[in-house]
Amino acid sequence: MSGERYVFDFAEGSAADRARLGGKGAGLAEMTRLGLPVPPGFTITTAACIRYQQTGDFPLGLLDQVWAALERLEARLGRRLGDARDPLLVSVRSGAPVSMPGMMDTVLNLGLNPAAVEGLARVTGDRRFAFDSYRRFIQMFGNVVLHIEHDRFEQLLAARRLEAGAATDAAIPAPQLEALVADYLALVAERTGKAFPQDPFQQLVMAIRAVFDSWNNPRAVVYRKLRRIPDDLGTAVNVQAMVFGNRGPTSATGVLFTRNPNTGEPGLYGEYLTNAQGEDVVAGLRTPAPIGELAQELPAAYADLERAASALEAHYRDMQDVEFTIEEGRLWVLQTRTGKRTARAAVRIAVDLAREGVIDRAEAVRRQDPEQLRTLLYRQLDPAASLTVLATGLPASPGAAGGAVVFDADEAERRGNAGERVLLVRPETTPDDIHGIVAAQGVLTSHGGMTSHAAIVARGMGKPAVTGCEAVVIDLEARQFTVAGRPELGAFREGTFLTIDGASGRVILGEVPTVEPDLAPEFLTLLEWADGMKRLTVEANADTPEDAQKAREFGATGIGLCRTEHMFMGQDRLPVMQEMILAESPEERTAALERLLPMQEEDFYGILAAMDGYPVTIRLLDPPLHEFLPDAQETERELAQALARGDEPAVARLEAVLRRTRALAEFNPMLGFRGVRLGVVYPEIYAMQARAIFQAQARLLAEGRHPVVEVMIPLVAVPAELERLAGVVAETCRAVEAEHNRSLPYRLGTMIEVPRAALVADRLAEYATFFSFGTNDLTQTTFGFSRDDAEGKFLPAYIAEHILPDNPFITLDQEGVGQLITLAVARGRSRRPDLKVGICGEHGGDPASIAFCHRSGLDYVSCSPYRVPIARLAAAQAALAG
Ligand code: ADP
Ligand code: MG
Ligand code: MG
């Protein structure tokens, strides 16, 4: 034989041949090698399919190779295709290198014709079985190869079932099945204008061609686009001797998982149907029985099945999804592949397999998908609840949330702040909607993808979101929505209670009870293993003792970013803060600061206590001061009213406020008067904060606790800024040390958030003993993007047009921002070899960014508390990747 080989017997291949033989073919070959009971057959390669797609015809030599393989198969089984005495029947099965379940086609029972069906009836002594097989063949061939609607066959089948008075297909007796075959043949003739092809060789050629063609059927094309599967992989074709699950009560067909794919519990999990074939399990009129019942019904076959399942698991070292058929008590395995599973099951299975010694712990950690595991950390729908699903959108941000529907952000804020649970429902969201998102339990948008504004913001906040739910048709004018394609439901008014499941994208009518995420013991075990493998320390961003507590529960060993601005926002504090900002003289300012001091001290006391023994990195005041002042327009309105009333003192006060507000107004607050710049102009603010920190530290030390204090100066760009403020902090520390008569050790560090800081990192390291990359601001300042504008306006287009691979605010831009990080680490450590370096911000919880931090030699990552477990896992995976 000359030319390329396109056909391989199952006995020739192995699991390594996936690209060439497809997943199904490689699996059949591997199982054959293992000695499992696999009906013999051969595989036509994906290369043949690709040639066929290119030329529209079978490549030269292919059919010769098929006939040769068929002869080998016939010789082996002692039966021949189309033989009127004892016919060989085959299945013709599709199977791509990448699993595309249900996307392509398969034909069973090929090789039957009027003579062969009589032969089959004679040799089996079972006329009913023979005609059941024949009618199945015509039906599948008619559908897959001749493109006659499945329904037309089903109608004829139902009519004969009715005529026979049979409850199920399996109960239709032989005469009605024979009549049905005649019905089917007539249908085919009518629909195609030709007689049904009764030559088995012609049937085989047509079926192979149809399976090749099914590579490009519309649903397969769409599926590949969705999953980013290349179009040029092609499908293999497996021609396999038939085994029959439809030969009576000791025959059956079924599917099983070697472990429970929902919970991960060990033990076979699946379903079977006696006296049935192939697809009946999923499509049939009868409800399949749980696999456990097979142990009673056909104990010997069940025992074989258990043995096969454990052999497959041991061999593939993972949970398998298996198709099987039992023919007159004898087990046949027809397919195996690595089984899909929930996050919960993924963890349980990996941990169990490691404990069973099938894989090692590193492998158990390596196998997890951190993004999938995130779903374990959110509140979830009560699995016992029954759901009225209205529509399904994109699973944009995991977690379950319910609330009354509101259609605008202001309304969401109003009702949310009044204590009502609301769900913000918008065509899409913009940065102007942030306040509404904050106040809502979750977000539902009818447009926008996984990187839309709503999706990004919600994920950042850890709020559930469903985006791109086009079926939800919103009428903002009428304040109602309808569900596309379901007019019977009518319109849903504002206030309707909906529940969204951000993990699955489901939109559910009414309130669904939710349950706490269950951190199963296996998950905790896995995380412990991960901790033993990672090099990076995982810290959390936390501003309150409650967050600090949560972070510790999730395994954080420190706080990498404790922001202090939120501490001034409360009812009791904001007025004092405003007083401080409005102060006309240093004395007035100091007086206000003195009132803030005890409050800050309590804040720091609480947080340091909650993190006892672990470092707490406290960032001194960062945002521009006008964020603490009332809106200028509002003040103007009040001023007008005061003037009208003739209220002199109020007029004077409001005029002062307005003057100050105007003086502090900025064209570009992001690049304005904030961070260390505040500290330089008003050193007394930072001095007060430092004093509060050290007094809290002194009290805790006096109580025998172990506060670990790190003071962090934000937004430094010039070494002299840091030098100045490091001096203020040191001086304050010395004063408090003297007052308490004890030494108060602390670290002083800086954030690296602007390119200039990265460039002068060696100079900064003269004063700083740690760096924390504020990668959010560093991304903004490196790109010159303001995040809200970017995400609201052009970033989605950038990602859609592939100008940027990802949102750089979610996944660190290694090409640009990453260079600044590595450069700053090198320069900083050149001056101070033991410089502690980490990142804080959203990137600290992103697996790809964490891997980058590991490779760049960082010491820690800090992220929001609910991402800590994912970061621990990702840090271990990064270490395992070397
Ligand atoms: P899919 O990829 O859609 O599952 P398959 O090629 O696996 O398609 O086949 C469809 C059904 O037919 C499955 O239930 C399979 O187990 C069954 N089947 C395929 N080949 C045979 C065969 N040779 N004998 C008996 N049943 C078969
Ligand atoms: Mg299958
Ligand atoms: Mg910043």
TrEMBL record:
The keyword Kinase applies. Residues 524-878 form the PEP-utilising enzyme C-terminal domain. Its EC number is 2.7.9.1. Mg(2+) binds at residues 753, 777. InterPro entries: ATP_grasp_subdomain_1, PEP-util_enz_mobile_dom, PEP_util_AS, PEP_util_C, Phosphohistidine_dom_sf, PPDK_AMP/ATP-bd, Pyruvate_phosphate_dikinase, Pyrv/PenolPyrv_kinase-like_dom. Residues 420-505 form the PEP-utilising enzyme mobile domain. PANTHER family: PHOSPHOENOLPYRUVATE DIKINASE-RELATED, PYRUVATE, PHOSPHATE DIKINASE 1, CHLOROPLASTIC. This is Pyruvate, phosphate dikinase.
